[in-house]
Amino acid sequence: MTSISNTEVEVVRLVTPHNVNPIGTLYGGYMLQWLVDAGTIAAMDFSESNVVLGYLDRMHFVSPVKVGDVVKFKAWIVHVRRSSMTALVEAYVKRAEGPSLATIARMIFVKVGADDRPSPVGRALEASEDWERALWSYFSRWRESVEPELKREPTVGDLPAVTHIQVMPEDAVYGDLMYGGRLLYYLDQIAAISAFNYRPGIYVTASLNSINFRRPIYVGDIIAVRSDVDYVGHTSLEVAFEVVAKGLRGERRVASGYFTFVNMAGGRPTPIGQELVKDPDALRRKSQNLAEAKALRTAKLYDDRPAYVSVLERGGSA
């Protein structure tokens, strides 16, 4: 048995000029990829095997990250099922005045064998401290709650194709499976292009809703990303996207979801123009995102446990 605290891994990144957007803050695609990097390392270390990203829950960028910042990523395995592991990943910005929470991510990884098929994890997780039991209890319920989402085939409507990408060996970590962090890196950029095409501006990623990676993408596949703006508020907009892979294994719908961007053309949240609502559910997602981001901004930072524990102690979640 391994305790949750003993699954912790830590990764540190330095934000350099090639990691940022035109206003000097960390490009969202890098943050997404780095979060998945930390979660993948924790899952691989725990399972002692290769893993693939199966699900990423809603995540929010709650604190800006700038050139020269040092970002620390901490990841824990907080729940285990037969062939899957839930990882909690938190990113902190280290500055002279003290660290601040940049974002958190909740992910499900699947252990895969030599045939790239799900394989039993083969290890158990122990929760002995109060905070570990709180995490285990919450993520047990959370894992049950997302089960319908994992089995559902959602659609985001008829979207125009923005771009096509051929998956190269550099887009995989091992074998011929595309790395989930790399796909998220591309998706953030492509969704931002859709935002710019709708109304020119400097768009910064504010949040990403749940993504279920339903089917694998292989090296050599062509992925088509379809995306379009489906909601425009005062200073933010939402972009719906869908990923389709084509290759020797046929055509597969891989994933779909939504990004929210804030227009920062004026150096701060800047009005976009006429508001638009194509998808009424976008209003629900916006309200939910704002509430969750607010909960994270007040999270307490600990040296020996996740900040997310303080969110749960207040009866909230993100």
Automatic annotation (TrEMBL):
<dbReference type="InterPro" id="IPR006683">
    <property type="entry name" value="Thioestr_dom"/>
</dbReference>
<dbReference type="GO" id="GO:0006637">
    <property type="term" value="P:acyl-CoA metabolic process"/>
</dbReference>
<dbReference type="GO" id="GO:0005829">
    <property type="term" value="C:cytosol"/>
</dbReference>
<protein>
    <submittedName>
        <fullName>Acyl coenzyme A thioester hydrolase</fullName>
    </submittedName>
</protein>
<dbReference type="Pfam" id="PF03061">
    <property type="entry name" value="4HBT"/>
</dbReference>
<dbReference type="InterPro" id="IPR029069">
    <property type="entry name" value="HotDog_dom_sf"/>
</dbReference>
<feature type="domain" description="HotDog ACOT-type">
    <location>
        <begin position="5"/>
        <end position="115"/>
    </location>
</feature>
<dbReference type="GO" id="GO:0052816">
    <property type="term" value="F:long-chain fatty acyl-CoA hydrolase activity"/>
</dbReference>
<keyword id="KW-0378">Hydrolase</keyword>
<feature type="domain" description="HotDog ACOT-type">
    <location>
        <begin position="157"/>
        <end position="267"/>
    </location>
</feature>
<dbReference type="InterPro" id="IPR033120">
    <property type="entry name" value="HOTDOG_ACOT"/>
</dbReference>
<dbReference type="InterPro" id="IPR040170">
    <property type="entry name" value="Cytosol_ACT"/>
</dbReference>
